[in-house]
Amino acid sequence: NTKAFIFDLDGVIVDTAKYHYLAWLKIANQLGIEFTHEHNELLKGVSRVRSLDIILGLGKVEASQEDKNKWLLQKNEDYLSYLVDMDESEILPGVMPILNYLKEQNQLIALGSASKNARPILEKTGTLPFFDAIVDGNDVSNAKPDPEVFLLAAKLLNIKPEDSIVFEDSVAGIQAANIGGMVSIGIGDAETLHEAKHLFKDFTQMDKSFIDALIN
Ligand code: G16
Ligand code: MG
């Protein structure tokens, strides 16, 4: 059977979540807002604009659109500065064997990311050729937990939602997959991602027999 395997990007294929955090932390510090790793969980899988609103909300800071635009630009420039030297060494453990195995099994692979910087990251890490479809923050208007990003990916691959499998590290992303009627697979912390249908600490914990069971 041909299934659609939809990968989130940040926190699933590459550990860019730490760079997002550092860039947001700078903004938060500037504004005197406390911003912990726990707060950062709320931002995973969430769009850039919404992320800023969440941070401002944490500090009960009200700001003009002009200021917001300035901070959004600053955050992205700072984030991009961390990506300059990015290469395949930043691919998370166990990801390449799974991508290769899915290709061997003639399965379809898509990206379903909230990021507007997804394509250059796939290029820099050499993973772009694996993807049969790419849907990112430039293509959708409704952010996760809205399932739009994953539904569009499945549609581009001509695969039904129920035959689609989503790998996600964020609560919002797992919810999006579930709402979309897809099989949600959490990659990360069991407690944080308890809504996922299946859960793995990382891709090294996932063996081929698990993939085989999803395909057949
Ligand atoms: C990612 C991150 C989020 C980030 C969002 C937007 O989503 O998890 O923290 O805010 O993209 O990214 P950018 O500012 O690059 O457009 P995902 O869905 O790949 O995890
Ligand atoms: Mg993610």
From TrEMBL:
Catalytic activity, as annotated: beta-D-glucose 1-phosphate = beta-D-glucose 6-phosphate
Enzyme nomenclature, EC number: 5.4.2.6
GO biological process, one term: carbohydrate metabolic process
Residues annotated as site: Important for catalytic activity and assists the phosphoryl transfer reaction to Asp8 by balancing charge and orienting the reacting groups: 113, 144
UniProt keyword Magnesium, yes or no: yes
Annotated binding of substrate, by residue: 8-10, 24, 43-48, 51, 75, 113-117, 144
Cofactor(s) needed by this chain: Mg(2+)
Residues given in the record as Mg(2+) binding sites: 8, 10, 168-169
Record's keyword terms, sorted: Carbohydrate metabolism, Isomerase, Magnesium, Metal-binding, Phosphoprotein
UniProt GO molecular function: beta-phosphoglucomutase activity; magnesium ion binding
SUPFAM superfamilies (alphabetical): HAD-like
Active site: 8, 10
InterPro entries (alphabetical): B-phosphoglucomutase_hydrolase, Beta-PGM, Beta-PGM-like, HAD-like_sf, HAD-SF_hydro_IA, HAD_sf, PGP-like_dom2
Binding note for cofactor: Binds 2 magnesium ions per subunit.
Transmembrane regions listed in the UniProt entry: none
Family in the record: Belongs to the HAD-like hydrolase superfamily. CbbY/CbbZ/Gph/YieH family.
NCBIfam families per UniProt: bPGM, HAD-SF-IA-v3, PGMB-YQAB-SF
This protein's name: Beta-phosphoglucomutase
